[in-house]
Design goal:
The complex is a heterotetramer of chains A (325), B (348), C (518) and D (335). With 518 residues, chain C is of the alpha/beta class. Chain C contains 17 helices and 20 strands. The chains are: A mainly alpha (325), B mainly alpha (348), C alpha/beta (518), D alpha/beta (335). Chains in contact: A-B, A-C, A-D, B-C, B-D. The structure holds adenosine-5'-triphosphate (2 copies) and magnesium ion (2 copies).
């Protein structure tokens, strides 16, 4: 009798634990975000202030924008390593063509970003090259193209429209945050409400089956890489606006890695078939808060990198798909 | 070769491609495919491009094919070559190891430090153990916790670099070895005019080629890449093999870093950033599929030499070095596209 | 030790009170079965009854939530499939468990490769032994080419050979015949008989009832994860077996009332017309017509080119020459989307590779093909999708926790129904069904076939590809027989009989040897 | 005699390009000196000679651009053929680059080492072929005269020290300073930090409240500074180890609603045009030059070596200093 009741209790407890585990798995990034906020409330003076949170949000906007494009690419089981180089190229274009009105220069940068996406998408979707290799080529080449474009000069931006993106405010909200929110809205809408969004998930889950179900696989893939390229170029514009100049070498450096980190920590699996927009944004904020928490605590670069590694592993670990039950 | 992305693997390889998504699965004619497959596996495109480059270079410039030049190119690329061995094996399982560059730096620091403290033998052992441990962490998280290799090794890429900075006081302490020490000799010594690192790289290629092609461990490695779930159901030692491969990859990266530190008689904490991408490029150019399941070390060797030769080529061309990366990128695309087309031809 | 039972043999493998739950589903509750040496034990049940789950527990893929396993009387736990294999339990899983890019020889010997004195793999010996092994079991295949260049049936037979060659004391087969043609089935039965005579215990899962009666000694029936019956096969008549499985009587006979005519509208111009489809080494001048309300069967051996003909209808097959016309208008190749738009629907043969979107929900899987139709300006209407999905889940009796369940967690048969729903919701004019009843249970098979009848009656043109002669004969108004990519016979009207079909399919008379055992 | 003529014209070129160097010449020199005869190297005339220049980092930063340009200009002025390579920040590539140039038949080498260690094999190869190597910008841990001919460069520790002096002067000796560090693991970072930190101790009123890596990059300078301003609202001064980070910090300070140059003083090292312009605009407080124009000095050292004029082991190039007072006058000298 007793053994039976304990067994029943055991099962119940196990079910509870399973539910909790499943919940943390699906919401791990929010748990981590809450943890870091709680830590800072307790241990970091001056951290939790409106002013600081505003600053931190502004700082992570560039990653957010790049990561959203990356999330869609990863949704198709692909990856886009070219985004950092596209940011640098976009900045270089902006600087080179800042003579034309800012809007024109921005449009040009976005178009070129999109063209890089066409190239990537073509290699992936039509030629059938692994995304990681197809986009690796532009990671190598793009930054050098930016360098050639700048021809050894780092001129500053003076265009009011471009500078307005970073210095302007709408209803007290910084222009960069608005620029990022526009991207978030756009991507969330695309993923949730459009055929294209549904189809990209299907392609990521099983490309062959999608093809046979009438999904325009090539068009979808090209579209996804184009969006990623345009968003990266948009992030390049934001970056340039914010530092008022372009640098072929440091602009967007390693952003592909940061973006992938944000996407994965945000709960989007690298195997495709799923895109978590809000999770990605939360993860980008998490990584930024982590970085600044470390700065608040005067951590050295060495310690920062090690802590970052542990946090990435931890956040992904709690969200991992468990092995066979 | 199935041209569709693997399906149904809940947490499988990060690199699951959607390549050729829209193409119907092409049945492969049985006859003739074996030759083509063998060529493909051994990176025929890379070999062809390599031969072409060497030929053109030799015709254009007298210095291009001098023994010294060849020796230098090979020596300079032997380190990345050793890294690429581990990368090939990991990629064959459908995984990836992004941490090799950082581990390379760690290998150099540990090697030089221990060599100064306890001699060369201890240095080699300590390097293998220290770097192997990083590989073990990667492997456990990937094999047992079933996390995606891409993200795990991305984290160790950051973490190990931080560790190296920590060990060197962010570069404030430089580690160097006396250039007449036995340890330095590991990197600078020559036998029959060939540098030790080259000989060691060749030996490692031979050993791991045999391991991959002729041992159950190697067959298991290929099987995991070809279908991890099937390999589990077949009762193969999937997890243990995966863990071992990440250990091997890290240990090889560490040994390569140690050898380079020996050659340069000093260890630098900022060395080898971006090596992971170079190694991946070499592996892919060598014909190994990023989706896993097929690949060869001979091809990888060709890929490494090809990338090295491109650098030599650009130097001879006197092109602004800015073009270096543009040309490398273009080359990468060309070679993989050619490979892809060879596959199509084969499919008919 | 263990006493002799009525069956006169030792229990080799036992499950006692095994239960297993997945999130939202109780897949098995308190199931006990005993498998004895030298018996062929049938495990039957509807799709989703828990057969595969039980097998995976017996072989260490899953661990049971409660209950215990006994092997040769001793309690055991298998941590992974490796452990079960080491104990002498070898398994052919429902989803093919081989490595497609490797050669047949390697697949046969993976994990137990012959070695040279240097402890290296002895490929020469491996090849020799592989050839000998396949010869021994009358399986014809080149052992050196990658497995994925061989037909599905051959792959399945290689999987059987691998399992059998392990010298196991228990061999478990989860739907081994689902992609075998009749001659291969005979070969398999030969192997099973041989194993039984050697005292090996065999667990056999199949939805083909004929097979069960031919080869099995004992039967255990699962329904909704519970064991509802165990006993000698021969003592359970067919009708009762079906009733036990379904938990209800299946009154209607599986035969269509009026094959090949009656109320069908076979007049007017063809809805689907294939003109001289040719593809090097694959298809040679394949032509056929399907009219409104007509079911045209496509018969032939594995690799005869049936699936490729089907793919051509969807525009998913590159052609050297020839054309596909739907209602007189040619279909553009390379764009299934356009074909679907023109009213074509195709249920592919390989569900896992070409059908399901495994990590997406039932809802998304059903709606994917219909998306362009159900949206305005590229925007999705979830309300319309939900209505549609609800309707088809009810109509096809899809057994799931809800429309949000991931398709990969459905049983094979229910996955097949989801696929069918995906196509039916398009209300197509031409429906190509490639092995529509593969792997689905008798009840579902009945439903699918009834659906085909209904659809044809509604005026749909159906092209039915099936390896089950009975199904082809019962369902078709006309049967086109393919061989090596060319049309070799067309059976019409009164010519349609199983005997004629088998004659037409195989130039050599099909193996009609005595189905009774021994 | 032809080489001495070349040397003179080199001096003129240097004077045109950089009055700082021309006015003070080699600011200081040390060591006994090294000559071609003493080493038994063949005599080579600079005119028509094949000279190799191995650059270490991509020519994106203004410093590297100016450095390479001064080599190209001087080689042209001397009538030498210059072969350039760029190691793209990779030490192994730099070794192969140098070895490759030796195989291409260069007779003289100028190397901008990526770091203080790791070029030994390249030096060995050059020595074997009796090719003199002038190293510029970064001092290597090898033997002068034998491994390399001489080192021409700035004293990074002293740059840090001078930055501290400028800081003390600009702040009046009180305040809270944040340091934006260069890339981790880089010898320049270490030197510019230690020079600054040691010297700033002479002003007891100044306190270093934070040190954070910003990777010599403008974006990082901006993002790190933004967080630092939140963590330490009382910061009154920033020392950036290069101009890029300093300019990034300036943006962050302005964005935080403070006035750069007034509320928070900024001192950095390099002497790029952008930074000096900010100084002119009053948003910046001091720039210590790190002089990249090594061309004239390097070619002069090579000429001396061939002419058996002893070349010292170390030639320290003089670095200018831009202050709020001299910035507008000297803006054209920035690079
Ligand atoms: N990994 C899983 N996660 C969640 N549910 C699962 C999983 N595997 C099986 N199930 C569920 O368990 C039940 C039993 O499935 P199982 O595959 O054992 O059925 P089956 O009897 O083999 O059916 P079929 O004849 O269609 O193959 C089904 O309801 C299925 O949806
Ligand atoms: N001789 C062969 N060589 C290579 N691949 C083959 C061969 N025969 C068949 N296949 C593969 O098997 C698949 C099915 O072949 P096909 O469409 O020709 O046969 P089928 O008549 O539809 O047979 P079934 O559907 O019963 O398997 C093809 O897509 C093809 O990839
Ligand atoms: Mg099943
Ligand atoms: Mg078929």
């Amino acid at each position: 009798m007793t053994s039976l009741s304990t067994a029943v209790a055991g099962t119940a407890a196990r079910a509870d634990r399973a539910t909790v585990l499943r919940w943390t798995r699906d919401n791990g990034v929010y748990v981590a975000l809450v943890l870091i906020v709680v830590y800072n409330v307790l241990f970091t003076p001056r951290f939790i202030t409106w002013d600081n949170l505003d600053v931190q949000l502004v700082l992570c906007t560039r990653i957010v924008v790049v990561a959203l494009g990356m999330a869609m690419v990863i949704g198709t089981a692909g990856i886009d390593l070219s985004v950092g180089a596209v940011m640098a190229l976009s900045g270089a274009l902006l600087v080179q063509f800042s003579g034309v009105p800012g809007v024109g220069a921005i449009a040009l940068a976005l178009v070129i970003g999109g063209l890089v996406g066409v190239l990537n998408g073509f290699l992936v979707g039509v030629v059938g090259i692994q995304p990681i290799v197809a986009t690796l080529a532009f990671l190598f080449a793009g930054r050098s193209l930016a360098q050639l474009l700048l021809a050894g000069k780092n001129p500053s931006i003076h265009d009011k429209v471009i500078l307005g993106i970073s210095s302007g405010h709408v209803l007290g909200v910084n222009g960069l945050i608005i620029a990022a929110l526009v991207a978030v809205g756009l991507v969330a809408f695309t993923v949730r409400r459009t055929n294209f969004g549904r189809q990209l998930l299907a392609v990521g889950d099983n490309a062959r089956a999608s093809y046979l179900s009438g999904v325009p696989v090539r068009r979808t893939l090209i579209g996804v890489y184009v969006l990623s390229g345009v968003l990266a170029a948009w992030a390049g514009v934001m970056d340039t606006a914010s530092i008022t100049s372009a640098n072929a070498l440091s602009s967007g450096l390693n952003y592909e890695l940061f973006a992938i980190t944000a996407v994965v920590v945000g709960g989007t699996p690298l195997t495709g078939g799923r895109v978590r927009v809000v999770g990605t944004v939360a993860a980008a904020i998490l990584m930024q808060l982590l970085r600044s928490t470390l700065i608040f605590h005067s951590a050295t670069d060495a310690v920062s990198q090690m802590v970052t590694a542990v946090v990435i592993v931890g956040a992904v670990y709690i969200q991992r798909v468990r092995a066979r039950a | 070769m199935s041209t569709t992305a693997p399906t149904g693997v809940p947490d499988g390889p990060a690199t699951a491609g959607t390549g050729l998504a829209a193409r119907p699965v092409e049945p492969v004619a049985a006859t003739g495919s074996r030759v083509a497959a063998a060529l493909q596996r051994n990176g025929v495109a890379a070999f062809a491009a390599l031969a072409l480059l060497v030929l053109v270079g030799s015709v254009l410039w007298p210095s291009f094919h001098t023994l010294d030049n060849v020796r230098n190119t090979v020596l300079g690329n032997s380190y990345i070559g050793i890294v690429a061995i581990g990368m090939t094996l990991v990629i064959i399982t459908g995984g990836i190891d992004l941490s090799v560059g950082s581990v390379f730096a760690l290998g150099g620091v540990v090697g030089v430090y221990v060599s100064n403290q306890a001699g060369p033998v201890a240095a080699v052992l300590a390097t293998i153990v220290a770097c192997g441990l990083i590989g073990l962490i990667n492997g456990m998280l990937i094999g047992y916790a079933r996390m995606a290799p891409f993200i795990v090794t991305l984290a160790t890429l950051f973490g190990v670099r931080g560790l190296v900075y920590q060990l060197t006081g962010a570069g404030a302490r430089t580690y160097s070895v006396p250039s007449d020490s036995f340890f330095a000799h590991l990197g600078t010594g020559v036998l029959l005019t060939i540098g030790y690192p080259v000989l060691i790289a060749i030996a490692l290629y031979v050993v791991f080629h045999v391991v991959l092609e002729r041992t159950p461990f190697g067959l298991t490695t290929l099987a995991i890449g070809g279908g991890e779930d099937a390999a589990v159901l077949m009762g193969l030692k999937v997890r243990r093999t995966k863990v071992s491969l990440y250990v091997v990859s890290a240990a090889l990266a560490g040994v390569a870093g140690m050898l380079q530190a020996a050659q340069l008689v000093s260890a630098s904490p900022i060395i080898a950033t971006g090596y992971e991408l170079q190694a991946i490029a070499a592996v892919v150019i060598g014909g190994t599929l990023l989706t896993g399941g097929a690949g060869s070390l001979i091809g990888t060797a060709a890929g490494v030499l090809l990338l090295g030769t491109i650098n030599a080529f650009i130097r001879e061309l006197q092109l602004d070095s800015t073009w270096n990366n543009v040309v490398s990128g273009a080359f990468l695309v060309t070679v993989v596209v050619v490979q892809r087309l060879l596959n199509y031809r084969r499919a008919d | 030790m263990a006493e002799l039972t009525t069956a006169g043999a030792l229990p080799v493998l036992e499950a006692r009170g095994v239960s297993k739950s997945f999130p939202g589903v109780k897949a098995l509750s308190d199931v006990s079965i005993t498998v004895r040496a030298g018996e062929v034990h049938a495990l039957v049940g509807e799709n989703g009854a828990g057969k595969s789950t039980l097998i995976k527990i017996l072989t260490g893929v899953y661990q049971c939530d409660s209950g215990e396993l006994r092997h040769r009387g001793e309690p055991v736990t298998f941590a992974d499939p490796r452990a079960a294999q080491a104990a002498g339990i070898s398994t052919i899983y429902q989803e093919l468990d081989l490595v497609p890019m490797q050669s047949a020889a390697r697949n046969l010997y993976l994990g137990r490769e012959p070695r040279t004195r240097l402890r290296l793999v002895d490929f020469a010996r491996m090849r020799r032994e592989a050839n000998a092994l396949l010869d021994d079991y009358q399986i014809r295949a080149d052992v050196d080419v990658p497995l994925n260049t061989l037909g599905l049936g051959t792959q399945q037979m290689i999987s059987v050979a691998r399992a059998v060659a392990l010298h196991a004391n228990v061999v478990i087969m989860d739907e081994p015949t689902s992609s075998l043609e009749s001659r291969e089935v005979e070969t398999l039965f030969g192997i099973i008989r041989r194993l039984r005579s050697e005292g090996v215990a065999i667990v056999y899962v199949s939805h083909r009832l004929d097979e069960l009666y031919r080869i099995c000694d004992t039967v255990s029936v699962l329904r909704d994860g519970r064991l509802v019956h165990t006993g000698p096969m021969a003592e359970l008549p067919r009708v009762q077996l079906v009733a036990t499985m379904l938990g209800r009587e299946l009154q209607t006979a599986l035969h269509r009332s009026a094959p090949g005519g009656g109320d069908r509208i076979v007049a007017g111009p063809p809805v689907l017309e294939l003109r001289g489809l040719t593809r090097r080494n694959r298809l040679h001048d394949v032509s056929l017509e399907v009219h409104r309300g007509e079911v045209v069967g496509l018969g032939g051996l594995l690799g005869a080119g049936r699936s490729e003909t089907g793919m051509a209808v969807l525009g998913a097959q590159e052609l050297d020459s020839g054309a596909v016309l739907v209602e007189g208008k040619p279909i553009r190749t390379g764009s299934p989307g356009a074909a679907i738009e023109a009213g074509v629907a195709l249920l592919p043969e390989d569900r896992k590779l070409e059908g399901i979107l495994p990590n997406l929900s039932i809802r998304d899987n059903i709606a994917i093909a219909a998306l362009p139709r159900m949206s305005r300006l590229g925007l999705v209407s979830d309300k319309r999708i939900d209505q549609l999905v609800e309707h088809f889940m009810a109509r096809l009796h899809i057994r799931a926790t809800g429309p949000g369940q991931k398709v990969s967690t459905l049983s094979g048969g229910n996955q097949q129904k989801v696929m069918l729903a995906r196509w039916l919701c398009l209300s197509p004019r031409v429906l190509v069904l490639d092995e529509p009843t593969r792997g689905i249970d008798v009840g579902a098979k009945f439903e699918v076939r009834q659906t085909i009848d209904e659809l044809a009656a509604e005026g749909l043109a159906v092209l039915l590809i099936s390896s089950e002669t009975e199904e082809l004969v019962d369902e078709s108004d006309r049967i086109v027989v393919l061989k090596d990519g060319a049309v070799v016979a067309v059976l019409d009207g009164d010519d349609i009989s199983e005997h004629d079909l088998v004659q037409a399919i195989a130039a050599v008379p099909s193996p009609e040897e005595d189905p009774t055992r021994d | 005699s032809s080489s001495s003529a070349g040397s003179t014209s080199g001096g003129t070129a240097a004077a045109a390009a950089n009055p700082t160097v021309a006015s003070s010449g080699a600011a200081s020199a040390s060591g006994d000196g090294c000559t071609a005869s003493a080493l038994g190297y063949p005599k080579i005339s600079l005119k028509g000679a094949k000279v190799g220049f191995s650059q270490s980092e991509p020519e994106t930063a203004a410093f590297r651009i100016a450095e390479t340009k001064s080599m190209v200009d001087e080689a042209a002025a001397q009538g030498a053929t210059l072969i350039k390579t760029n190691a793209n920040s990779e030490i192994a590539k730099q070794v192969t680059d140098i070895q490759g140039m030796i195989n291409q038949g260069v007779q003289l080498l100028i190397v901008a080492p990526l770091n203080s260690d790791g070029l030994q094999p390249a030096f060995d190869a050059a020595r074997a072929k009796k090719i003199p190597v002038v190293t510029v910008d970064r001092l290597v841990n090898s033997k002068a005269c034998t491994d390399y001919l001489t080192f021409i460069g700035s004293d990074f520790v002293s740059q840090g020290k001078r930055a501290a002096d400028a800081m003390i002067k600009q702040t009046g000796g009180t305040g809270k300073v944040a340091i934006l560090l260069g890339s981790s693991g880089n010898g320049v970072t270490t030197d510019r930090t230690s020079g600054f930190v040691d010297e700033i101790k002479t002003a007891p009123g100044i306190q270093v409240v934070a040190q954070q890596t910003a990777n010599f990059a403008r974006t990082d300078g901006q993002t790190v500074m933004a967080s630092l301003l939140q963590a330490h609202p009382d910061i009154t001064a920033v020392y950036a180890e290069n101009d890029e980070m300093g300019i990034g910090a300036e943006t962050a300070i302005a964005a935080a609603g403070k006035t750069p140059g007034k509320d928070i003083k900024i001192v950095s090292v390099d002497g790029t045009h952008d930074a000096v312009q900010l100084l002119v605009d009053g948003k910046y407080n001091g720039v210590i030059e790190s002089n990249p124009r090594f061309g004239p000095l390097a070619f002069k050292a090579l000429a001396d070596f061939e002419n058996d004029t002893p070349v010292p082991a170390k030639i320290i190039i003089s670095d200018n200093e831009y202050t709020p007072d001299n910035a507008s006058a000297n803006l054209s000298k920035s690079f």
